[in-house]
Write a structure and sequence with these properties.
The protein is globular. The chain is mainly β.
Amino acid sequence: MAISEFRYNKKRKHYAYIYKQSKSKRRNILISSKPTMTKTRVKGKPIIVQNVRLYRHPNPKKEGTFYLIPETYNDEARSFGERVYDWNWDINDKRKVKRIKKHRLRRN
């Protein structure tokens, strides 16, 4: 079932955009303030992933440069905060979000 809301992800320590729910699971995309993310591996070198730059943070009161982590996560409903934020995507960021949701974002 489709859903569209912003909540704090307590498990991953980031604000998240929740876009789909099924039973007790929620599909979400994380908002970060860092331009890169490091994925750790069991063996070998860690992988450095470039985050997608946002035109504007969904919160109209926030200023600065923010990024979307180009990966979708499937977390339990209890790992999110109770408060639902009344934020909206900027018109220039909607396409970026849609491409991440569909797993069609070009990776460098």
